[in-house]
Fold each of these.
Amino acid sequence: MYKYKEVADFTYVLSLDNHVEICEALSEFCKEKEIYAGVVNGLGAICEATFRFLDPATKQYVDKTFSEQMEITNLTGNISRKPDDPHTPYLHIHITASRRDYSCVGGHLLRARINGACELVVQDFWEATLDRYFDPQTGLNLYKL
Ligand code: FE
């Protein structure tokens, strides 16, 4: 699903395989390297992506899928641990992608299929743990700091 190189201590450059789903591949990488606290950034090209919007008034999620070729102009996210599952990396990723007409769409990333390439940098906050808890006021899994 990916190739990677450790370019500095606990800092990895990844090239994801064409046609893989970004969150799935990144989750696999975090499991392989046992990364449960860190950050990720990247760019690439995708042909299908689903974004999520949380309406703060209703606390309802609105998901939308875009099926078209797009450039990832920015992907940024963090890695922590699931509240109820300490061995599953919890990815929180936001993305902006540009279309053929150069307009952009973006949001909270649920899934994105690569069509071309996807290059990521992952920084592992080595030996740190970052857990989350569910906050009923916002409806979000927030950092437990
Ligand atoms: Fe989000």
Amino acid sequence: MTVEKAIYLKPKKEVSILRRHPWVFSGAIRAIEGAVQAGDLVAVHANKGRLLGYGHYSPGASIAVRMLTFNDEEIIDQDWWNSKVRSAVDMRKQLGLMGVAGNSICRLIHAEGDGASGLIVDYYDRVAVIQTHSAGMRESLDSIQEALIHSLGSELVGIYNKSAKLLRKLKIAAEDGWIYGAAPDDWKPLEYGGAFEIDILLGQKTGFFVDQRENRALLGRLSKGKSVLNVFSYTGGFSVAALLGGATKVDSLDSSSRALELAQINAEANGFGKDAHGCIEADAMEYLKSGVTGYDIVVLDPPAFAKSVSARHKAVQGYKRINSRALESMKPGSLLFTFSCSQAVDDRLFTHTVISAAIQAEREVQILHRLHQPPDHPVSAFHPEGSYLKGLVIRVN
Ligand code: SAH
């Protein structure tokens, strides 16, 4: 492929690219050729000129190039986009997450995990929600839209672009909105049989935390006849899974009244009234201090406490505090589902943090399950940073 614009790396900086890691940091660049602008496709060369592949350029960002291909013969055209999206769709179908009765919610494109650094697409029953995290992906929006229509056919009736907040952080002007069709009248996103109202426009991320599906399913299997407290519930994903699994009583706790309103709507949409599902609008830490003796299972799924490596120490203290607070008053034999979605806190560190929380709470605990993000949020073998969600199921004795 002829790409006029090129960047040349400093000596030895090609090593990670040769290992197919998709990020070129700004400090690794020796020279730039051509009038390169934000979002341009650039050819990436090693110091002495060897062509390493092509990627999207982002001036001013610490990740200056996000590689799209490491193949010097590949051409990034509409066919390339079509086959990228087609392959992502095929994988979700292979996993039984799309085109099946009972499940119509999944992540369709997971950035680096699907070889598309800077792009997230979630799928909610015939509606795709796109988040572009880079100038290059924003420039590629038309191609992405066309590829989604091409690959999904009648399984797609609307595409919503929800990138403005992310792009404004990069000082790129953008507006959210429907770029193709809209949600159908009979829209009914399902996760393993559970129906969910997805607030695409005002909700967090693309509207729903798709990444907890398998962990919610595990909770469902363990919930029969149990009482469950779902802390940091958002719109009640874990709560609905527990209710469908036969929980006798579930309480959703969140500091956001809007999230709780939707949690209640979601419980009701699945046939559970206020007797089975309660809402607690509170600060999680304050509430946990008052004790959680009454529950058989407690879920702790806080927002990312560490958004960067520099924030890691404080984040670990935060995880330790909420976990020890919960463990202190949980009844013997009960289960704690505890999570971290901070990429900067890895599995080992999270496990150590929860263990030290148990020591502080003076509780004997057993680790029953180690949990992760599901396979529709794949981790590229060449980009281990893509692994971000981790959790433990702990039995408190
Ligand atoms: N478990 C959810 C996702 C949790 S997202 C799911 O499966 O969908 C994190 C949630 O924590 C958000 O809904 C946010 O409103 C809530 N939150 C953030 N800080 C909080 C606090 N201090 N106390 C209670 N809830 C909080």
